[in-house]
Q: What sequence folds into this?
C-alpha cells in the first residue's frame, strides 16, 4: 500500500530530499560577543541553596534527583523520578514532611522528562525514498536491532520496489496526511538509512505460494545516520503537529502472534487507528458477514503474503506501519482495498526469521535490587538479589566500572555473588533481552571482613566444645548470651575451638575475629544443652502383665523441678499424654485405671528451662483371654532386640500393628540408657 507521486509535481520536494544529505546551516547568523550576565548576591545565595539541597539529597539517598529549585515559598523543592522511589528516598521525603531537613520544603515525584527531537524514530513514522524521478512514501513498523546490535527499522518488503529503492529519509510529521498535510516533505535530518533486506512474496521476491510460510512482506532499513535514535515504541501521532512523534507513544515490550480481539495501527497516512480482528465482509449474496483470519494467506499486488486480517483502516503510504495488540508487536501493514474496508498485515513473528537475524527493539523496565540495601554491608560472596521485568531474559551488570557481566533472570528474579575481597563496590544493573536493554540502576555495597563460622551444638552435656572456621592466625572472641566467654586463635587450617561450660537451656552464641587490626562482624549460632532423659523405673522394656496386674500408673526419676511428659500408645487407643513435675527426684503419672489387654509403647521427656530432653522409651504387653503373645526369648527374659508377637488367633491387621508399635521403642531405649540423671 505504497503511495507515489511524479517527481515533476514536487520540484521543491526533490530539492529538499537531496539537500538532506548535503546541506548544512548555511543561513546561520555570524556569532556575536555577548556581555556576561550580571547577577546579584541574593541570586547566588539561592543557587547555592539549591545546590546544597540537591547534594544533600543525593548523599542521604544514593539517588540523583531530576531537578531542584525554589518557588514563591521558602525552601527548596526537589523533584525525583517515580522509578527511584527507594526506601532511602521515602525516608528522606518523610523527614522533609516532618520538618527535619533544613532548607528543603518539599519532595515531589514525577515521570522522568525526556528531550524529543526530529531524530527520534518510533514505529508508525513516515519515511520517503526516491528512484527514477519518483518519490515513494511508506511507514516505519518497529525499531529493531541487527544481529550485531546495530540500530535498524522494520517495514514492508514491497516498499523497496524489489530492491530498486535503497536510501531512505524521514518525512516531516506535521506535513503528513495523518494530520491533513500533503506529505513527502523531509524533516531535514539527512539520510535515515539503507535498505538491507526486503522480501515481498516468496524468496527472491517471487510470487510465493498459498500456505507457504516463506511468502511474506517485510523489509529492513539499517540506520546509518549516527544522529538518529530509535525507540521501542509506536507513536499515536498526537505529537505530529510539533514534529515530535516520540512525545506520545505506546511501548513495545514483546513480539507475539496475533490473537482474537482489538488491534491498533500506526502509519504516516492514516495516523493512529484502532480496530478488531473480527472484520465485516460480504457473503455470496452480498450480505454482511463476520470474518476472522488470524493465520492465513492473501495476494498483495499479485504476491502471496502470510498474515492476518483486521478492520482497522489503512491507506496508501501506511504500508510497513506498526500493528500492535497492547504492548505486543504482532504485524506490519501489507495491503488492503482503497475503501479501507479491511487491512491485511504480515505476521511479524513469522516474518522476522527471514530477515537474517534482526530482532524487534523492546521497551524493558529497569531491574530493582531487593537485597542488600543500597550502601549496605555484606559478607564476602553474599547473594545480591533483585527483580526484573517479565520481558527480561538476563541482567547485565558492572562492578566498579569493570567489564559487563551477565546474570540470568528466572521467574522474574536474578542473583549475583558479592565479591570475596572486602572493600567498597559500586554496581550498575540493566535488564536485557537480546540487544534490547533497560536504563541502568546504580547500587553500592560494602563487603566486610568475613565473619567466623560457628557450628551449632545440641547435647545433654554441660561441658561442650564450640568450634568453627575463620581466617588463619585471626583471634576469635566468643560471646554466649551477650557475655564474652573466651578467645581462640584460628589455626593454619582455618579451624578454631573453645571449651566452655553451659547450663541447661538454649544459648545464643556469637563470635568475631580480629585480623590485621580489623574486626569482623559477628557470626551467630545456637548451643542447646538439654537435660538428660528421665528414667522410667516402674516398667522394664519387654515386660508382660496379666490383665489383673496391668499397670494403672507409670513412675520414674528425673531432675527436681523438671516437667515430665509421658506418652502412652496402645493398639486400641490413640497416644495419650500425661504430665508430672519431678519432686525429690521422682515423678508419677496416673493412667486413670488399669490398661486393657494390648501391646503398649511408652515414651517420656523432661523439660528444664524450656528445653526438652530426648525421649526415654519402653514397651510392654498386657495379656488377656483373647490376647496371648508368644513366649519371650530366653525363657521369658527381656530381649531389647526382640519383638513381642501376638497369638495366631488375632486378626492379621492387629498383629501387624502390634509389631510396629513394639518396634518403635528400640531406638529410644538406647537414648534412655546412655544418659544419667542430672541433679
A:
Amino acid at each position: 500500500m505504497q503511495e507515489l507521486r511524479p517527481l515533476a509535481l514536487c520540484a521543491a520536494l526533490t530539492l529538499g530530499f537531496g539537500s538532506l544529505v548535503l546541506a548544512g546551516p548555511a543561513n546561520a547568523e555570524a556569532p556575536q560577543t555577548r556581555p556576561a550576565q550580571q547577577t546579584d548576591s541574593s541570586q547566588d545565595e539561592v543557587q547555592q541553596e539549591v545546590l546544597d539541597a540537591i547534594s544533600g539529597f543525593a548523599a542521604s539517598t544514593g539517588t540523583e534527583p531530576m531537578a531542584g529549585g525554589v518557588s514563591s515559598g521558602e525552601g527548596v523543592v526537589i523533584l525525583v523520578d517515580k522509578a527511584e522511589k527507594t526506601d532511602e528516598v521515602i525516608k528522606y521525603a518523610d523527614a522533609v514532611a516532618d520538618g527535619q531537613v533544613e532548607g528543603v520544603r518539599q519532595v515531589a515525584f514525577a515521570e522522568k522528562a525526556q528531550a524529543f527531537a526530529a531524530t527520534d524514530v518510533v514505529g508508525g513514522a513516515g519515511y520517503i525514498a526516491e528512484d527514477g524521478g519518483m518519490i515513494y512514501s511508506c511507514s516505519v513498523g518497529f525499531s529493531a536491532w541487527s544481529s550485531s546490535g546495530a540500530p535498524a527499522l522494520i517495514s514492508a518488503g514491497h516498499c523497496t520496489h524489489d530492491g530498486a529503492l535503497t536510501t531512505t529519509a524521514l518525512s516531516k510529521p506535521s506535513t503528513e496526511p495523518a494530520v491533513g498535510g500533503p506529505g513527502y516533505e523531509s524533516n531535514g535530518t539527512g539520510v535515515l538509512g539503507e535498505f538491507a533486506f526486503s522480501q515481498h512474496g516468496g524468496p527472491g521476491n517471487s510470487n510465493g505460494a498459498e500456505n507457504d510460510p516463506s511468502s511474506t512482506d517485510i523489509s529492513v532499513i539499517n540506520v546509518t545516520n549516527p544522529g538518529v535514535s530509535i525507540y521501542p515504541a509506536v507513536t499515536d501521532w498526537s505529537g505530529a503537529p510539533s514534529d515530535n512523534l516520540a512525545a506520545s507513544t505506546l511501548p513495545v515490550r514483546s513480539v507475539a502472534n496475533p490473537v482474537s480481539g482489538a488491534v491498533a495501527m500506526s502509519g504516516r497516512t492514516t495516523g493512529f487507528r484502532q480496530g478488531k480482528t473480527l472484520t465485516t465482509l460480504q457473503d455470496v449474496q452480498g450480505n454482511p458477514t463476520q470474518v476472522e483470519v488470524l493465520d492465513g494467506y492473501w495476494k498483495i499486488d499479485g504476491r502471496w503474503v502470510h498474515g492476518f486480517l483486521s478492520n482497522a483502516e489503512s491507506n496508501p503510504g501506511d504500508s510497513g506501519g506498526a500493528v500492535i495488540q497492547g504492548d505486543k508487536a504482532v504485524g506490519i501493514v501489507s495491503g488492503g482495498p482503497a475503501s479501507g474496508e479491511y487491512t491485511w498485515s504480515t505476521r511479524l513473528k513469522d516474518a522476522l526469521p527471514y530477515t537474517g537475524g534482526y530482532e524487534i527493539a523492546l521497551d524493558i523496565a529497569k531491574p530493582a535490587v531487593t537485597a542488600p540495601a543500597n550502601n549496605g554491608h555484606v559478607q564476602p560472596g553474599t547473594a545480591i538479589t533483585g527483580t526484573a521485568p517479565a520481558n527480561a531474559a538476563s541482567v547485565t551488570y558492572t562492578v566498579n566500572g569493570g567489564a559487563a557481566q551477565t546474570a540470568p533472570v528466572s521467574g522474574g528474579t536474578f542473583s549475583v555473588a558479592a565479591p570475596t575481597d572486602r572493600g567498597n563496590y559500586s554496581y550498575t544493573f540493566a535488564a536485557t533481552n537480546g540487544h534490547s536493554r533497560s536504563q541502568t540502576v546504580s547500587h553500592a555495597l560494602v563487603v566486610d571482613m568475613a565473619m567466623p563460622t560457628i557450628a551449632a551444638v545440641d547435647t545433654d552435656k554441660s561441658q561442650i566444645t564450640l568450634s568453627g572456621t575463620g581466617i588463619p592466625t585471626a583471634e576469635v572472641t566468643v560471646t554466649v548470651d551477650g557475655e564474652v566467654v573466651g578467645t581462640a586463635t584460628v589455626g593454619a587450617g582455618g579451624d578454631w575451638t573453645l571449651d566452655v561450660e553451659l547450663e541447661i537451656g538454649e544459648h545464643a552464641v556469637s563470635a568475631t575475629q580480629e585480623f590485621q587490626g580489623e574486626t569482623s562482624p559477628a557470626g551467630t549460632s545456637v548451643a542447646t544443652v538439654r537435660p538428660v532423659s528421665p528414667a522410667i523405673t516402674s516398667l522394664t522394656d519387654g515386660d508382660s502383665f496379666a490383665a489383673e496386674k496391668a499397670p494403672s500408673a507409670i513412675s520414674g526419676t528425673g531432675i527436681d523441678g523438671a516437667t515430665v511428659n509421658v506418652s502412652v500408645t496402645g493398639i486400641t487407643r490413640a497416644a495419650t499424654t500425661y504430665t508430672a513435675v519431678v519432686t525429690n527426684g521422682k515423678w508419677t503419672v496416673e493412667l486413670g485405671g488399669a490398661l486393657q489387654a494390648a501391646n503398649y509403647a511408652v515414651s517420656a521427656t523432661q523439660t528444664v528451662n524450656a528445653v526438652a530432653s530426648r525421649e526415654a522409651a519402653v514397651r510392654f504387653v498386657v495379656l488377656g483371654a483373647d490376647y496371648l503373645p508368644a513366649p519371650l526369648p530366653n525363657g521369658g527374659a527381656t530381649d531389647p532386640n526382640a519383638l513381642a508377637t501376638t497369638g495366631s488367633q488375632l486378626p492379621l491387621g492387629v498383629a501387624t500393628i502390634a509389631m510396629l508399635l513394639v518396634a518403635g521403642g528400640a531406638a529410644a531405649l538406647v537414648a534412655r540408657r546412655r544418659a544419667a540423671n542430672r541433679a
